[in-house]
Specification:
Blueprint lengths: L5 H27 L15 H18 L4 E3 L2 H7 L3 H10 L12 E7 L7 H9 L3 E8 L13 E10 L2 E11 L3 E4 L25 E3 L4 E6 L2 E6 L2 H9 L8 H10 L6 H23 L5 E2 L1 H10 L8 E7 L7 H7 L3 E8 L2 E9 L2 E11 L2 E7 L5 E8 L3 E5 L4 E5 L2 H9 L19 E6 L5 H4 E3 L1
Parallel strand pairs: 2-5, 11-14
Antiparallel strand pairs: 1-2, 3-4, 4-5, 5-6, 6-7, 8-9, 10-11, 12-13, 12-20, 13-14, 14-15, 15-16, 16-19, 17-18
Helix pairs in contact: 3-6, 9-11
């Protein structure tokens, strides 16, 4: 057997060792030497969760340096944070370094209180220097729009930062005159790279949204300092129902050019009273946790002319009968309103009417009937019943008289059902028993039950 040359063996060992050291150097420079810390999975590779955590940590570091008023708004992460501690501890076993921010989604969402931050280009430059790619999306400022000025300057609505394929969404929340926060729709212009982010998976931007101002707390999530809503469940509930409809200023101005608004002292005084009454009703129902929406003529006024109809002489709101509470009458009385009438009963055609000064607040309760919903009406002198049929609808937020209120999302369908295709033409002589397009006769109340079902005060 030939003898092995020691020099040859030593040379081979040196070569193999050098190759191994070069590989280690390459691996260190590619994965480990970048700002971290980087935590690898058991097989030594970066996972999607690792990339999400590292991208989020790096982004928040830059944001903290520039004082961005951010808070965590990611629905998946907040949902994990709101679970009971037992489930949280169980998850910690599987992802010890990233239990909540690593959601397995390609996007992490934060909200920025725009009124508390002065636009700082240096922040964007610093993010780019850290390796982030940026997509800035702007839109018109609706706070500057009015019947007199239909154009508004563009403001930032969404920032999208991308690093290693993971996207950080920053949604801008602006204060509105109704004392709520608003964000705009994420609209992609023709030149925008539609492969930049998984836009269909973004938590925010499918439509404009509105929120009550959340109380925030600073906490540590997965080793990172971050602000979160104190009441996570409430914020998530708001997020699911946040869709906001802007007033149609362009159409309203066209309407008012055809039918000039009443500027008499009586009309101005009526609008002042309606604003006061609507705000009072909103506060009262909020204490009872009863959602309501603008209905009938009040809804028509918002949709048609971005205001109230000065000759209507009342305020109309709707409430689903499932949200009825027996203490609603006493709550409005405690708020200073007097009960004018109560018609019907909880399981059929309930209607309440209150009086504030000389303006009525009519509350119509809506009943579910398969593909449609309806509310009832009662003629006090005859006991005749009427039914008003509407297509099913969901509720969106809107603003009227500096108040955040709900309206049917498909407002046109709602208004057309009630007022017909000529809803855009004012009708001063309105008969609630025959004028509505959706009214039907619904029998009569038994005379022996009038004392209970037809109460006029």
């Amino acid at each position: 057997m030939p003898r092995v040359n020691r020099t040859t063996v030593l040379t081979l060992l040196i070569i193999s060792s050098s190759v191994f050291l070069l590989f280690q150097l390459y691996y260190y420079r590619k994965y480990v030497s970048k700002p971290g810390p980087y935590i690898l999975s058991r097989d030594g590779y970066l996972t999607a969760n690792d990339i999400q955590w590292q991208s989020t940590k790096k982004f928040l570091g830059v944001a903290r340096h520039f004082g961005l008023p951010l808070f965590l708004a990611d629905t998946a992460a907040l949902t994990l944070l709101s679970q009971d501690s037992l489930r949280q501890r169980d998850r910690l076993v599987h992802e010890p370094h990233c239990s909540f921010l690593c959601t397995g989604r390609p996007v992490t969402s934060f909200a920025l209180h725009a009124n508390l931050w002065k636009y700082e280009p240096g922040f964007l430059l610093a993010a780019e220097q850290k390796g982030f790619e940026l997509l800035e999306l702007r839109g018109r400022d609706p706070r500057l729009a009015s019947l007199d000025n239909l154009s508004g300057e563009e403001i930032p609505l969404h920032f999208l930062f991308r690093l290693h394929g993971h996207v950080i969404q920053v949604v801008f929340l602006y204060e509105r005159s109704g004392n709520y926060l608003w964000h705009g729709e994420l609209r992609l212009k023709a030149h925008v790279d539609r492969s930049f982010a998984p836009f269909k998976l973004l938590d925010y931007g499918r439509h404009p949204g509105s929120y009550d101002r959340p109380e925030l707390v600073l906490t540590v999530v997965d080793g990172i300092d971050v602000r979160i809503p104190r009441n996570i469940s409430r914020f998530l509930s708001e997020q699911r129902q946040a869709r906001f409809l802007e007033c149609r200023y362009h159409d309203a101005r066209n309407f008012l050019q055809l039918y000039p608004d009443d500027v008499s002292s009586d009309a101005v005084d009526f609008r002042r009273k309606v604003k006061s009454l609507l705000h009072l009703a909103s506060r009262t129902l909020a204490k009872l946790d009863i959602p309501f929406w603008l209905s009938s003529g009040t809804c028509l006024g918002w949709f048609r002319q971005c205001s109230v109809i000065s000759y209507s002489r009342d305020v109309d709101i709707g409430i689903f009968i499932g949200d009825f509470r027996s203490d609603i009458v006493s709550a409005f009385k405690s708020a200073g309103l007097s009960l004018k009438h109560k018609f019907g009963k909880v399981d059929d055609s309930l209607e309440l009417s209150f009086l504030s000064e000389d303006v009525k607040l009519d509350i119509f309760f809506f009943y579910d009937n398969g593909d449609v919903v309806w509310n009832g009406g009662t003629q006090a002198k005859s006991g005749k019943k009427f039914k008003y049929i509407f297509p099913r609808f969901s509720l969106c937020w809107a603003e009227l008289l500096e108040l955040k209120v709900r309206v049917p999302c498909d407002t046109l369908d709602y208004v057309t059902a009630n007022y017909g295709v000529t809803w855009s033409v004012p009708v001063r002589n309105w008969d609630w028993k025959s004028s509505p397009s959706n009214v039907q006769r619904n029998g009569e109340w038994p005379r022996g039950e009038w004392a209970e079902l037809i109460q006029v005060y």
